[in-house]
């Protein structure tokens, strides 16, 4: 029996399908790299007289970085949008931006102005950032035992939708200089449908109860997502919100106050580590340069696109099992595993890069790159992009989520902007050694998560926060592999009576 049912399933499914316009727009520059690059070259030549290949490559790299500037902008305003407008209204704004960005990409070809595409690419970055709000929204609408499932369900939807549009990017289909604009037409349609669907979905119950003090509205939203007959679950959710609201009332929301609060500081640290994983993974580089990289390893444009399809198809089964195993095995082992996969991806990419650097141009070197990319895509399918949103929704009380989101998402984006902008130069100067450096960074992050990350699967947010702020302290012994309750929030295994007493204290 499928673990999701009723209106929660339909809401999650609609988000999983129709909210993916941002992912497709962000991938457009990579999937349509050759025709869009030719369009940029022609536009720069006609409008600005740019003829030099070196000048063009510099401008093109700068334009590719605009997506990450959009990410930084969205993370900078995300907190105010979440708490000011609300979760639902922020997603409505995201859908509107999706339509606007698609129109910009579409009209760029019609007017032969590459600047319009850059604006659309920047908006695509904003959509990627505001996707965090969508994950937090669906997590707040889900029962405690389904938070990870619904979050990864949406993540898997993005993987599948991107895979479905990839064949359309072949040179024999839409991957030409005159037809690539049809992909933004699809994203405009998806954004429009998502806008309409979102209008009819209720606001986050926690936002209604804690932020707006609307218990009746919160109960109505809970009945929509939990079911009309789930009175016991709804009452339990309301009690959890009461305790979480009390905890939120004792806390402050500035970054400085969070850093001075022992429990909140630790939560901020864990979320920040999770936010760094996508930055040091191969995701950002591949999103802009994967086709170009594969071509440098001996493949043609057409074969590179086919290789990307094969990579996505082989790693696709991970998307189907990830929502289930994150609840069965917990967040921690999954997050540690996917971070190690990112490290091994860089090692795999370093092999053909080293072959290029030393002139060992054997014909099968692209195979190593494809195998490495499968590991990286598997990490994405396991939930790499929703690590931080899940941790924000589980480790942080309602009143500090926006601040933690802003503080942990903005700094990594600046690293990503530099990474994408400087990649061609760094690759030319340092070659495979740069890949090994990034592999070392991912390995370090995996080690930190292995020793410090807490297991939160199935626990209510108020219970997690209460345990974090209680007598048991958070030490490395909490998370050592040798201990049988690996990843527990307790410093040592409490007696059954202690567990019962803690539960009663939380309830009453």
From TrEMBL:
Keywords: Membrane, Transmembrane, Transmembrane helix. Residues 1-457 form the Major facilitator superfamily (MFS) profile domain. This is Major facilitator superfamily (MFS) profile domain-containing protein. It is found in: Membrane. One of its GO terms (molecular function) is hexose transmembrane transporter activity. InterPro entries: GLUT, MFS_dom, MFS_sugar_transport-like, MFS_trans_sf, Sugar_transporter_CS. It holds the Pfam family Sugar_tr. Its main location: membrane. The chain crosses the membrane at residues 59-79, 91-110, 116-139, 151-174, 180-201, 266-285, 305-326, 333-351, 366-392, 404-423, 429-449. It comes from Caenorhabditis remanei (Caenorhabditis vulgaris). One of its GO terms (cellular component) is membrane. It is a multi-pass membrane protein.
């Amino acid at each position: 029996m499928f673990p999701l049912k009723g209106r929660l399933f339909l809401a999650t499914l609609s988000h999983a399908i129709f909210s993916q316009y941002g992912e497709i727009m962000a991938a457009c520059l990579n999937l349509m790299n050759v025709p869009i690059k030719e369009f940029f070259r022609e536009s720069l030549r006609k409008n600005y007289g740019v003829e030099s290949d070196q000048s063009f490559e510099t401008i093109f790299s700068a334009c590719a970085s605009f997506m990450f500037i959009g990410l930084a902008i969205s993370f900078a305003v995300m907190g105010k949008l979440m708490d000011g407008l609300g979760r639902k209204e922020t997603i409505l704004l995201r859908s509107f931006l999706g339509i606007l960005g698609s129109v910009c990409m579409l009209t760029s070809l019609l007017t032969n102005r590459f600047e319009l595409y850059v604006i659309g690419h920047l908006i695509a970055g904003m959509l990627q950032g505001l996707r965090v709000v969508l994950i937090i929204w669906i997590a707040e609408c889900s029962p405690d035992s389904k938070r990870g499932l619904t979050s990864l369900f949406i993540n898997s939807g993005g993987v599948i939708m991107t895979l479905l549009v990839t064949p359309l990017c072949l040179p024999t289909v839409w991957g030409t200089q005159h037809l690539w604009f049809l992909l933004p037409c699809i994203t405009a349609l998806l954004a429009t449908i998502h806008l309409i669907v979102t209008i009819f979905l209720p606001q986050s119950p926690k936002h209604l109860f804690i932020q707006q003090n609307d218990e009746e509205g919160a109960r109505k939203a809970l009945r929509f997502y939990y079911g009309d007959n789930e009175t016991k679950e709804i009452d339990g959710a309301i009690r959890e919100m009461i305790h979480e609201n009390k905890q939120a009332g004792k806390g402050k929301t500035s970054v400085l106050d969070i850093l001075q609060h022992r429990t909140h500081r630790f939560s901020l640290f864990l979320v920040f580590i999770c936010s760094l994983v996508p930055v040091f993974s191969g995701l950002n580089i591949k999103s802009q340069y994967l086709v170009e990289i594969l071509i440098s390893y001996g493949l043609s444009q057409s074969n590179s696109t086919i290789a990307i399809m094969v990579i996505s198809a082989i790693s696709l089964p991970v998307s189907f099992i990830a929502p289930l195993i994150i609840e069965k095995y917990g967040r921690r082992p999954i997050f540690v595993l996917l971070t190690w996969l990112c490290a091994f991806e860089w090692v795999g990419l370093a092999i053909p890069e080293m072959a290029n650097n030393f002139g060992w141009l054997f014909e099968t070197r692209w195979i190593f790159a494809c195998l490495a990319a499968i590991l990286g895509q598997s990490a994405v399918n396991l939930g790499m992009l929703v690590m931080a949103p899940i941790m924000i929704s589980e480790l942080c009380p309602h009143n500090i989520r926006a601040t933690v989101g802003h503080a942990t998402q903005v700094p990594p984006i600046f690293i990503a902007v530099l990474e994408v902008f400087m990649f061609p130069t760094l690759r030319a100067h340092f070659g495979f050694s740069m890949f090994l450096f990034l592999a070392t960074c991912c390995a370090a992050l995996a080690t930190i998560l292995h020793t410090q990350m807490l297991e939160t699967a199935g626990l209510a947010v108020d219970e997690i926060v209460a345990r974090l702020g209680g007598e048991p302290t958070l030490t490395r012994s909490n998370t050592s592999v040798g201990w049988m309750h690996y990843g527990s929030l307790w410093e040592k295994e409490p007696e059954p009576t202690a567990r019962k007493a803690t539960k009663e204290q939380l309830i009453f």
